[in-house]
Design goal:
Layout: H1 2-16, H2 45-74, H3 82-92, H4 99-104, H5 117-138, H6 143-157, H7 167-180, H8 199-222, H9 225-229, H10 233-239, H11 245-251, H12 255-270, H13 280-300, H14 306-314, H15 320-323, H16 334-346, H17 355-383, E1 412-420, E2 433-434, E3 436-437, H18 457-465, H19 475-484, H20 488-491, E4 494-496, E5 507-517, H21 523-526, E6 531-543, H22 549-554
Antiparallel strand pairs: 1-2, 1-5, 3-4, 5-6
Helix pairs in contact: 2-5, 2-7, 2-14, 5-6, 6-7, 7-8, 7-14, 8-12, 8-14, 8-17, 10-11, 13-14
């Protein structure tokens, strides 16, 4: 009897110390944890981990592309050597390397020895690969690491010339710049309790995705008539820069499917961005819709890492309660630790802010002011009827304009490079053999490639070259000269060299072709052809290596050496 009374008194004492509304036996030391824990809305500890890993993944792909292709494109013997470009910048500002030259083209290469530019480019890419791999695998990052990634990639973009002239390069730099301020200064903890994610930085990411999507939608409405007629998707899958196998089948969809696709595109780019400002649930819906939209675009074409990158700022739309399903439950896990942080904050048990926290807040406020100031010309451009897309208003590319496919090509044309060993290129019996690129259409029987998020920069530029004449793209004659010498570096950018293990061709020419998808069930498809092509005429006339000697010398390009 005495034992029962003592037990009753003990339970009453425990319940007296419980918080109001808590069930019996659930006092302050008995909070639910582990698999039964449900995170509260409004914190972004897990959001930061997911966002940084997603950003690191895109950085990894970008540096991988750079490592594999920079030597061939901008290296010592590249198609557009960056050493020549930096010299031209230096000459333009009339003197040694000074602030004007550095601010015009900010890059670490100004500080390095130009006599071994291939090694410099490899070093930048390899360092970027190493740092991005660490962040991707561990989920740990600090300002120093993220700033390193940003400076390294900016150093490549600003000497990449036409090969790095696309909107996703500036978009990665802007996203990466914001990523620097999402992290603590030095700590590499995945959950640095002293530095919670800043709301200013999170809104910086949301402001970025808002401008990306709205800019893309407005440039379409103001651009090609087919976006207003809802007919653009009748052509897009066939004429996009680098189609994939799925695009072949999507192109065959009924007309009403294409109308629905175009309307959906307008809704997602012109209406959904405003969901960001309508509270937590609508913001979450915005993030989910935009990520789903980008996933569809990834499936339907090879658009480099653009769509993967566009997903990154959308992650800032989700709080810890939304992203909790991505993390395992259990005592001591990230979810459990975040739950404890939330409970401490709810009880007011967090320590008072230290001096370092105050400095950090001041830095974030300064960042917000900077982004707002740099956004002024961007917003003016968005509202302008003469809107331009994918433009930077500052050399560091911190805040930029964006847009995609403001105009849609209705016919697909391709430049096919051919070589011949014949002594006379003009004789009817000359046998011309095609070079095949890694991914762009060539042989009508070759299946379209599937490479996203990887990116073949030369293939992409060949798509643009087909719209204009070779005089607008002088690098294509540089490529022809290298093919005439069987240059191994340049040929590594191609999938097929018809003169492999043979003497190099005596002549190389460019032919212009019109390409269309074959019709499923038709004669060409039955013969195993994905494409039907028709010759339009010459793109550039047959050239030999001696013909190009003066052309190379006038541009300070290394003259190819015959093997």
């Amino acid at each position: 009897m005495a034992a029962a009374e003592e037990s009753l008194r003990r339970r009453k004492a425990e319940n007296a110390g419980a918080e109001p509304g808590s069930p019996p036996g659930r006092g302050p030391g008995h909070e639910p944890t582990g698999c039964n824990a449900r995170l509260r809305a409004g914190t972004f500890w897990l959001t930061r981990i997911v966002l940084l890993r997603a950003l690191a993944f895109v950085y990894f792909v970008a540096f991988l592309v750079a490592f594999h292709q920079n030597k061939q494109l901008i290296g010592d013997r590249g198609l557009l050597p960056c050493r020549t470009y930096l010299k031209s910048v230096q000459q333009y500002f009339r003197g040694p390397v000074g602030w004007d030259a550095v601010s015009y083209a900010p890059t670490l290469l100004w500080l390095l020895d130009w006599s071994h530019m291939d090694s410099n480019l490899d070093a930048l890419a390899l360092l970027g690969l190493g740092v991005s791999s660490f962040v991707l695998l561990t989920g740990c990052a600090n300002m120093a690491l993220m700033a390193t990634l940003w400076v390294l990639y900016m150093s490549l973009v600003n000497v990449g010339q036409i090969w790095y002239s696309f909107g996703w390069e500036s978009q990665l730099l802007e996203t990466g710049f914001l990523g620097i301020f999402l992290c603590p200064l030095w700590s590499l903890s995945r959950l640095p309790t002293g530095t919670p994610p800043s709301q200013i930085v999170l809104w910086g990411f949301r402001w970025l995705i808002f401008r990306i999507m709205l800019g893309a939608g407005l440039i379409k409405i103001r651009g090609d008539q087919c976006w207003r007629d809802l007919t653009c998707m009748d052509f897009h899958y066939e004429t996009q820069p680098v189609p994939n196998p799925v695009a072949y089948f999507l192109h065959q969809s009924p007309w009403w499917v294409h109308r629905f696709e175009t309307l959906s595109n307008h809704f997602l780019e012109l209406v959904v961005p405003f969901f960001l400002f309508l509270g937590r649930r609508m913001c979450t819906l915005h993030g989910a819709l935009q990520i789903l939209f980008q996933a569809v675009l990834i499936i339907s074409g090879n658009l480099s890492f653009l769509n993967w990158l566009t997903m990154v700022p959308s992650v800032a739309c989700f709080d810890d309660a939304t992203l909790a399903f991505l993390f395992p439950s259990g005592p001591g896990g990230l979810k459990d630790r975040v739950l404890k942080l939330q409970e401490e904050a709810a009880r007011g048990l967090r320590p008072p802010p230290r001096y370092g926290c105050m400095v950090r807040r001041a830095v974030h406020v300064a960042l917000g002011v900077l982004v707002a100031w740099l956004s002024v010309p961007v917003v003016v451009n968005l509202l302008s009827p003469t809107q331009v897309m994918n433009t930077s208003f500052n050399p560091l590319r911190i805040v930029n304009t964006y847009g995609a496919f403001g105009s849609i090509t209705k016919e697909r044309t391709e430049v096919i490079l051919q070589g011949t060993a014949s002594l006379n290129a003009s004789t009817p019996d000359a046998v011309w053999e095609d070079y095949e690129f890694k991914c762009k259409p060539g042989d009508p029987g070759r299946r379209p490639c599937l490479i996203s998020p990887y990116h073949y920069r030369l293939d992409w530029l060949m798509w643009f070259a087909a719209f204009q004449t070779y005089e607008h793209h002088e690098w294509i004659l540089h490529l022809a000269g290298k093919l005439l010498a069987n240059d191994a570096t340049a040929l590594s950018l191609l999938a097929l060299n018809p003169f492999e293990n043979r003497a190099p061709p005596r002549w190389v020419r460019g032919e212009h072709y019109r390409y269309k998808f074959s019709r499923p069930g038709g004669r060409h498809a039955a013969a195993g052809k994905w494409w039907v092509r028709r010759r339009l005429g010459p793109y550039f006339p047959p050239v030999s290596l001696p013909d190009l000697k003066d052309y190379f010398q006038s541009r300070e390009w290394p003259y190819p050496e015959l093997p």
